[in-house]
Structures are given as C-alpha cells and as structure tokens.
C-alpha cells in the first residue's frame, strides 16, 4: 500500500510539474505577444509624427512666409514636442524599471513646477483650442522635490487631459493645500474612463481598448511614470471618473514642508 501511495504521489507530482511548465510556457507566449504588440505600437507612434513634419518642410520650402507658414510651424512644433515626449518617456521608463532614476530634490515652490508644466503642455492644450483655467494660491507652497520631475508629472496629466478631451473641452487645474499636504487636481470633461479600466490606469502599458482607434496615440507609459515619480516624492496619485464621456479627474497629493524644510503634516497614507 505504501508503494502504491508513493507511486500515486510521484504521478501527481509529475502532473503538477507538467502543468506548471505548460503554464509557464503559456505565460511566456503571452508576454512575447504583448512585446510584439508593444513594438508594433512603438514603431507606429514614432513614425506617425514624421509624415506631417516632412510635409510641413516641403510647404515651408515653397512658401516660407505668411500666416500659412506660421500655422505649419506651429503644427511642426507640436509634432516634435509629441515625439520628444514619447522618447523621453521611453527612456525614463527603462530607467525606472532598472531603479536608475535619481531625484535631485531641493526645497522648492510647487508653483514653479506648475508654471513649467503649463509652459511645456501649452502647444498640446492650444492645439485643440481647449479652455484652460488654473486655480492656485499665490502664497508659496513649499515642497521637497525635483523641479523637473514634478513639472513632468503635472505636464503628463495636462497632456492626457488635452489628448482625451475633444476640441472645445474644458481643462481645469486646482492646487489646494490642506492638512500639511497639497492636492494638484487636473480635471477634464472629455472621454472619461470606464470602471474596469480605472484601477489599471497607472499600470505600465495600460491603455483603454478603443477598438483600433489609435488617434489618441501614446504607449501607456505616462501615468506609470506619474505614479512612480509621485511615490518617490512621498505622495499619492489617484484617478476618478464616472465612466465613458463624463470626463476624468486626476489628483496628485504631495507632502508640504515649511520654509525651513521641515515636514508640516503627518506622512501621506498610501492610497
Ligand atoms: P497613453 O496616454 O500614452 O496611452 P498613459 O499612461 O498616459 O498612456 O495613460 C494610460 C491610459 O489611461 C490611456 O491610454 C487612457 O486610456 C487613460 N487615460 C489617461 N488620462 C486620461 C484622461 N484624462 N481621460 C481619459 N482617459 C485617460
């Protein structure tokens, strides 16, 4: 009987190993498919802006002056901004996954990061003639942060708001200090986010299934970077939306410090 039991255990163990290796092979296969899909999207995204830039150059060669030329230059500027952002994000994400992003933190005014972000995102917001309003207190809001990285966080949120909100939409940004922290809200009244997508928006390569409509573009990197960088600043990132077509709100909370650099509030809870 003991021998039979041993045999049975042995067979069961073998079956389990076989199943595990099948599961592993399946997981590898799926990862491989995802990688292929990602590479195809990446090639597409990098190539997309090049055709209009090339056309623009041709137009400028023929008629370098006048309002049309101005419009063409604006378009080329936007396409290049988009391309640079894409490549920067790509570089950053590989640095983040290898744990190679170093923050240059200093005591800084959050307002400076906000202004820098607005400056960077202006071409995208203006491109679709969105209305943009900013509600931010004048008194200095001190944070311990990396100015460039915080500007990148805010600008990623603004870019998304512009990207996922059609022409004529409203984008609002509220900066609200309370209880030793500051909330930065970016609110749009655009496409919104479906409930099943909402918990995944900060995941790397997460993109809502928009059925082959790639007009919104992107690689699904921006928000993963936002969440990582905010975390590295001791803050939290959250997304809110009631679903399709109702707009979205993204809130980043950061700990405030006093003018001398000491923490004002209690440490932020992880959301
Ligand atoms: P990307 O925009 O390159 O796809 P992100 O990481 O910036 O990648 O965003 C991930 C996904 O979250 C997007 O593909 C989109 O589906 C959704 N998303 C992000 N911001 C918004 C927004 N303001 N409105 C609607 N959907 C959004």
Automatic annotation (TrEMBL):
It comes from the Bacteria. Residues 41-258 form the Histidine kinase domain. This is histidine kinase. It comes from Asticcacaulis benevestitus DSM 16100 = ATCC BAA-896. The chain holds residues 137 to 407 of 549 of the full protein.
